[in-house]
User: Fold this.
Amino acid sequence: MAGSVLKIAGRRLSQHTGSGAPVLLRQMFEPKSCTYTYLLGDRESREAVLIDPVLETAQRDAQLVKELGLRLLYAVNTHCHADHITGSGLLRSLLPGCQSVISRLSGAQADWHIEDGDSIQFGRFALETRASPGHTPGCVTFVLNDHSMAFTGDALLIRGCGRTDFQQGCAETLYHSVHEKIFTLPGNCLIYPAHDYHGLTVSTVEEERTLNPRLTLSCEEFVKVMDKLNLPKPQQIGEWLRIWTPGSKGRSWGSGHLGVREEVLRVWTLSFSKKKSY
Assistant:
């Protein structure tokens, strides 16, 4: 499909992604939460988007955007994160004109609430929004318009997947999301997850379809495995609660990742605003 174009919302989008392609991609890492942040830009228009920014590294990301001569249109989140605080709001302050984006189903505040099928345009490119719930109800996967790469958040990790034991997660829903929304992409589509804990950076749809030890199981077997994981709480859940104690100032980049199981959800409901801000 190199060199072809796609028309979305009245705009022709280049699908050339080979050597010398105008699409720019940078993968950045935040070590505390093992989170990947992705910068995508159109080399000609200089318009760009940032996927899953982290508060602690937002200054770094903003500096890179400036160094590369890009204009950041959107700071987008694949879902409400429980293991870190998003950098979207801080980026809105550092880079005027940047808008925050998250799924409407996340329940979080943002400049733009996206839904399944929406396109996020930057220059001649676009990210297609594919709802991929299961880790959380508001999870989405962003697919570049030529289907050459997908940013899967916590829905699909390299040889793994996101947990489903809190934030209203559902193992069966996650299984169907991955198989129906991600594994239906071309086999050579690159998979860029929101996290990796083993030093891996990228996979492909074909690799995960055939090698992922959880998602090659039947749905019934997958649900049993996920129900028995007994994972610890996210490392930074305490920081999330500290920021949103009564009397603290709400932060526009901030907050409110749904908590760990029902006890944190109960505390959050009683003590904090129902709307989180992204």
Summary: The chain has one domain: 5-233. The chain has seven helices and 18 strands. Residues 1-19, 240-276 have pLDDT under 50 and may be disordered.
